[in-house]
Amino acid sequence: MSSESEVLNWKYSYFLKNEKNNFNKNDILNILTINDIDDAYKTISKWDNYSPTPLISLNKLSKKLKLNKIFYKDESKRFHLKSFKALGGAYAVEKVTKGNKKITISTATAGNHGRSVAWGSKKLGLQCKIFISEYVSEFRAKVMRSFGADVIRVKGNYDNSLNECIKQSKENDWQIVQDVAWEDYKLVPKLTMAGYSVMMKEISEKINNQKITHVILQAGVGGMAAAMVAGIARYLNYIPKIIIVEPENASCVLESIKNGKIKKITIKKESLMGGMSCDEVSLVPWEILKNSVDYCVSISDDYISKTIKSLANSEFSNEKITGGECSTPGIVSLVGLCNDTQVRKKINLNEDSNVLIFGCEGDADEELYQKLLNS
Ligand SMILES: Cc1ncc(COP(=O)(O)O)c(C=O)c1O
After folding, report:
1. What residues contact residue 26 under an 8 Å CB cut-off, 6+ apart?
2. What is the pLDDT of residues 313-322, one digit of tens each?
3. Residue 1 C-alpha to ligand 1 middle, in angstroms?
4. Residues 242 and 268 in one domain
5. Last residue in a domain, options 178, 206, 232
6. Tens-digit pLDDT profile for residues 286-303
7. Quick one: 327 and 199 in the same domain?
8. Residue 111: pLDDT band by 50, 70, 90 thresholds?
């Protein structure tokens, strides 16, 4: 059986409706302002080699799922950094340093954010210190070193690497450029989100008069998802159904939506989708997501390599697509939701639906990508 026909058996893990959904454009744009969003586009679109990433039609998959269209935003082509994260960290570095070459930048990362921060620091001739946990692959560390960053490995998980980053940054007066917000650290994470919102500007220009009915957004700490919601508020004059997808072992947004307040979870097993294996939604994204999200869905790791292969073998579209592990959840969750006839009906997925999904990264971790592709 080809993987294309196999999709008919795929299942999501858990589905939740947000009872507090009440999309309010003004509230959203009070948190990430039109100024923040426009400033990011103005700056980033002037960077060397900037060009919008492709919006690919997954025409074979939409036919299979009996949907009108599936738009796939292909971030594997983003500045040769191979992920949307290139837009966030590097932009924040530029904004916070304001031309001061004496500042040393620091961050903690699961990989792609650090790559962006290292790249942005290199572009501006700044020293850069990157803290990674024991779960970040040596391949990802090597790429960050190739941008001139000092990579420091910390025992334990992401939280441990962040704590060490904060401690050493205080001691040495380094400027932290983090994509996660906490109580008195919100400005920089907002800048990273403003950078990500460039994706929605590009999408709004590519789709012309076609109306997106559903958008599926991957979440780790929620920064990317909330930035896309703000982009929807800024650039679209209608509101699609907004669906958050997370790994089943790291569904911190789903659990927070269920509880009506931020809930830190315990990750029992790290997901292969490393960038999304987060235990707590970040503060600024939460303020945006809590009322704008319609549904949350979680998925297992079981379909990651099948999706990567199908993308690479042009089984979902006319083109061959390089999509890494974090590029798969939009497809996996959409297939799972479509296969559940009751949920499909409840959320209005039908032959008139135009679904937007995000291929957040390419083979950013080449070794893991090859392993999953050939497994
Ligand atoms: C590579 C990668 N890292 C991280 C994330 C999560 O982003 P955030 O932590 O802003 O929610 C994603 C989203 O899918 C991703 O693809």
Report:
1. none
2. 999 999 999 9
3. 32
4. yes
5. 178
6. 999 999 999 999 999 999
7. yes
8. confident
In this structure, the residue with its CA closest to atom 14 of ligand 1 is 218
Q: Is the pLDDT of residue 23 over 70?
A: yes
Asked whether residue 291 is assigned to any structural domain, the reply reads yes
> Tens digit of pLDDT for each residue in 231-265?
999 999 999 999 999 999 999 999 999 999 999 99
Q: Is 220 in the pocket of ligand 1 (CB under 6 A)?
A: yes
Q: Quick check: CB of 357 below 6 Å from ligand 1?
A: no
Has residue 2 got a pLDDT over 90? no
Each residue's pLDDT tens digit, 180-224: 998 899 999 999 999 999 999 999 999 988 999 999 999 999 999
Q: Say if ligand 1 is within 6 A of residue 298 CB.
A: no
Residues 93 and 74 in one domain: no
Do 256 and 322 lie in a common domain? Answer: yes
Q: Ligand 1 pocket, 254 CB below 6 A?
A: no
Q: Say which CATH number the domain at 103 has.
A: 3.40.50.1100
- Ligand 1 center–CA 282 separation, angstroms: 12
Tell me if 88 CB under 6 Å of ligand 1.
no
Tell whether 13 is covered by a domain. Answer: yes
For residues 87-114, give the mean pLDDT. Answer: 96
Distance 361 CA to ligand 1 centre (A): 9
Q: Is the pLDDT of residue 1 over 50?
A: no
Residue 186 lies in a domain: no
Cβ–ligand 1 contact at 219 (below 6 Å): yes
Closest C-alpha to ligand 1, atom 6: 220
- Please give the number of the atom of ligand 1 that sits closest to the Cα of 75: 16
Looking at the structure, tell me whether residues 168 and 202 fall in a common domain. Answer: no
Provide the residue range defining the domain that includes 299. Answer: 3-83+192-373
Examine the pLDDT at 268 and tell me if it is beyond 50: yes
